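Hi, does anyone understand the following?
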Amino acid sequence: MRGLKLSERFKSIQVHALSSSSETNDSSSNKASPKSSTKNSTLTFANLFPIQLPSTDTIEPSIETNLKPINLQETLAELYQRIECCSQSKKASLYVEQYSLLRSLGDQKLLRRCLRIARQNAEDVLSKVVLSAWLRFERRDDELVGVSSMDCGGYVLECPKKNLEHGFSPCLINDRCQCQQEPNEETCTENVCLSDEESDVLFCVGNEEISCVRCRIAALSDPFNVMLFGGFAESKMRKIDFSGNGICPKGMRAVEFYSRTKRLDLFSPVTVLELLSFANRFCCEEMKSACDAYLSSIVVNVEDALILIEYGLEERATLLVGSCLQLLLRELPNSLYNSKVAKIFCSSEAKERLAMVGYSSFLLYYFLTQVAMEESMLSITTMMLLERLGECAAERWEKALAFHQLGCVLLERKEYKEAQHCFEAAVKVGHVYSMAGVARTKYKQGQPYSAYKLISSLIFEYKPAGWMYQERALYNMGREKCFDLDVATELDPSLSFPYKYRALAKVEDKQIMEGIKELDKFIAFKLSPDCLELRAWLHIALKDYESAIRDIRALLTIEPKYITLHGKIKGEHLVQLLSHGVQQKSQAECWMQLYQQWSSVDDVGSLAILHQMLENEPGKSLLEFRQSLLLLRLNCQKAAMHSLRMARNHCSTMQERLIYEGWILYDTGYHEEALERADRSITIQRSFEAFFLKAYMLADKSMDPESSSYVIQLLKEALKCPSDGLRKGQALNNLGSVYVDCGKLELAKECYKNALAIKHTRAHQGLARVYHQKNQRKSAYDEMTKLIEKAESNASAYEKRSEYCDREMAKVDLDVATQLDPLRTYPYRYRAAVLMDEQKETEAVEELTKALIFKPDLQMLHLRAAFYESMGDLSSALQDCQAALCLDPNHAGTLDMYQRIQKLKF
């Protein structure tokens, strides 16, 4: 790394590499490190450097691909009203609309709940098939080794067999499926009595004669009945020439056998396909349904599905097509890379073929486009699927979504004129946020003033939002640009672009450390890969390779396939390059460093060291599990679940596998089955993690004294089992928490002190709670101060310390907490409550409103609704209740308030 240096002209922000001659001269010094001589690393240096790093003139924020209403709370409230009074047939589509509105929040559990309720209310086969596959995709079950895409999973809502049943079936989300215990229909025909009727008609096919029972063949359809018993010549014939009707002798024998027994299980799929075609030609509806059902039951892999779907479409066999589609959808995203699969969905002709059997819908293409966009925004497959989505769109929100997302893809593909038309179409159907897309495409086409005027008109016409000022800043200059970005951060601190711009502006002024500090502010409360990447490059500029590699490693735990510098170098290759500039650590040294970072609550550092440990020991399930727990705490839900799935795949024992499966089930809402996994694991072997998992799940419910005693017993059993200090510290902390809830303060105090003795720093918070329960507020305050002093990430510590001091000091602490992490909601609620106590009602509502703009939160909506109710503004209170219930329809406090306000208002 000695060859990497920052150019003296900071405005170019350029990193240079060694020349080939320099590499040759340094070859002797590189021999000590095996990695330094790898072909990939040398090629990366030679081919990818020098590279122009971002500057303030070149970076820009992306246009979000999700729906983004001007007033989300109002939109959610209106949607909740529609859900309340809609018919059963409309409910599934309304919950899908809810899903589309909530996608921008990034809460995976909330999105899963929307899809589950949509599936629960689905009536038609296609909706059931798509929603079930969507739930599987959201969990990324394709990453689980040994799990088939067509496995039932044990729940009615995701059972492949149940999905093929038409009509609404009332069931609860967690209802267990009995399909594994249901008798096989093929074996249920054992007692079918074969007809002993004598044949009285011969069907001649080629040179063969097939003996048939006339009345049985006539019963197959009205055309056969008329032919065999009506005024046609065949009704008098003993022999009927049937050679020109597209069926072979073997097929005709199958028709005869089916006419008597109604059985298909003895025939090959090829013969049943022939029967399906025959049934279609002669309107044999019962036989067609039987063939359709039988063929749909034998679709077991992609190859089968690709063959059989063609027959299904040709013969309009809806169940067969549904079964084939189900398999292809449940194999996503992998199946999308199969050109034959893409052909089934992508073209207009393909969509029309699906429409002929009732299987072309907005829901189908919505799912397909989300998968395709996640895989690649630039692929032609993604663009074609979005075009089909637009063709299927009927409702205004559907059209807005289809046009907006197609505009985003075209913008990425640099097809600016076409993108502009799409964004304008989205605006036309009411999606105001697409105006940002219109402005961006105008700017790209050399019309910056037109773009500026467009966004300025939005700011004056609507209640200003952070994204509006962020967008206008692109078309502004000098102080006005900085002003717009500062306002954007004030209105929506969750936007990363203003922080990145200010950081690069400082770098261009030769203040690299100040630029890093600007990025630190954002990374402290939101782990953003783009900010981590930029901070890493700034550390490289300062030759602080230790910090740079920390950031890239942390980034790769969130997005393992991340490619830095706009797709020019893989993150893992950059790690290899940076490794030359830092001292390599053994696994034992890594463990020691992990303890130190865990103790100082340095989450980014902990992520980085876990990444290095996994590099030293690839596929180590214990480390992948620890990584998942840390990512969950950092609210990186997708990355956490990926790590957990990898831990499950790589574990060496069934006992360990059951634990990881238990966590996966728990995190996806299947608590009873998760408990069952923990119990099975304990039966095999008593272990810390099995007892801890069970205790954690039981403690998550509201506990009575008896269940609290059981949780205490489980945690004590966990502590008796071998584990390391990191996990035992967590168990002691949890045990202390249960003791406090039970009023056993001395036992709780002992637990927290034992946790602190093994450097579980977060136990200071529990100890403070014990002191507070004993009315020792000064000791509680001091304990939280210790945590603040030790912790790198201490916004939550300031928030908690505010509970142990007077109102003025509490306000100071909560202001600091908001400054460190503006996404924490408690400080806003506290300040609003204080203002309400002081009878400053308007200011109290405004305190909550400014946070709700960028952080729609159930508790804040509930509190604002209560404020509105006390102020007599029942309409606003009702709207906030409806918005809150859209986020959680079972929230008891909000439901009570909603019903109370409805009675008062109506």
